[in-house]
Specification:
Blueprint lengths: L4 H9 L2 H24 L4 H7 L3 H34 L3 H15 L2 H12 L4 H8 L8 H25 L3 H9 L4 H29 L3 H6 L6 H12 L1 H26 L6
Helix pairs in contact: 3-13, 4-8, 4-10, 4-12, 5-8, 6-8, 8-10, 9-10, 10-13, 12-13
């Protein structure tokens, strides 16, 4: 039985695009309303006053330094892995991809527990590090280890998808012209995949700077901004934690704007 002309015309007149905007707008409001509530919860002078507090300055410096180090480690080791995964096929590719995604599905507290069983003070690696004069926990190294564990999958997964989107004919043309694999990667594959790679780096930085669960398990000190927010909330109350949260939000947004500007809006691609 075929639809009548009147029912077909009614379906054509129905604006499904407006419906998608309406439904998506509900989710956008769910994102923006809490952020707006946070921003206007405290007078600007209170937030500005918190910027000079030694604990806030120390936490912000620690977060920025460790997030930068974590993203650097994730990029140095994650891009080669993503390139291999993009070229690999079969069960090995599926198995390795599952391992990469695993930190994303683990609760952050569990991630911290997992890391403690490997680099904690009572472990072999922890004792070796302590014997050489540094600690893998309660230190900047501990913060970087925690952030890298939970944030590096963003680099690998995004870069893998970007490498898979590169036209193989262009790479084959480069190899046909006598260029080796490394040169082809550097001059053809990476530039074409760069927007996706930078999107992964941006997401990894944002995840690192906001990381709390694994960090608090592995390195309560030195305090990052999320840990400092938790300490202010538990000791002084919600009102005293708000200004520091606004500062963290400002740093995260500024970092995203900077990276997006440098990469030509990579997240939108």
């Amino acid at each position: 039985m075929f639809p009548t002309r009147s029912s077909t015309d009614a379906a054509d007149r129905f604006d499904w695009l407006s419906v998608t905007l309406l439904l998506g707008g509900v989710l956008l409001c769910y994102y923006l309303l809490p952020l707006g509530s946070l921003l206007f919860s405290q007078p600007p002078r209170v937030v500005l006053g918190q910027l000079t507090e030694p604990s806030v300055v120390s936490a912000a410096s620690t977060s920025l330094a460790t997030a930068t180090a974590s993203v650097t480690v994730a990029t140095v080791f994650g891009l080669p892995l993503a390139y291999w995964l993009a070229a690999a096929e079969g069960r090995a590719e599926t198995l390795v991809t599952a391992v990469v995604v695993l930190p994303l599905v683990l609760p952050p507290i569990v991630s911290g527990m997992v890391l403690l069983t490997l680099v904690g003070p009572e472990t072999i690696l922890g004792e070796i590090a302590a014997a050489n004069g540094f600690s893998l926990t309660r230190s900047l190294v501990g913060v970087v280890l925690a952030q890298t564990f939970v944030a590096s999958p963003f680099v690998v997964i995004s870069a893998k998808a970007a490498f898979e989107g590169v036209d193989r004919n262009l790479e084959l043309a480069s190899r046909t012209l006598g260029k080796d694999r490394l040169t082809t990667f550097r001059r053809v594959t990476l530039p074409l995949a760069w927007p996706g790679v930078l999107a992964g780096i941006t997401l990894a930085f944002a995840r690192s700077i906001g990381e709390f669960g694994a960090t608090v398990m592995l390195a309560y000190y030195p305090r990052t901004m999320p840990v400092q927010i938790w300490v202010s909330f538990t000791t002084l109350g919600l009102e005293d934690a708000f200004p520091i949260a606004v500062v963290l939000l400002g740093i995260a947004v500024a970092a995203l704007v900077l990276l997006t500007t440098l990469g030509g809006d990579p997240i939108a691609r």
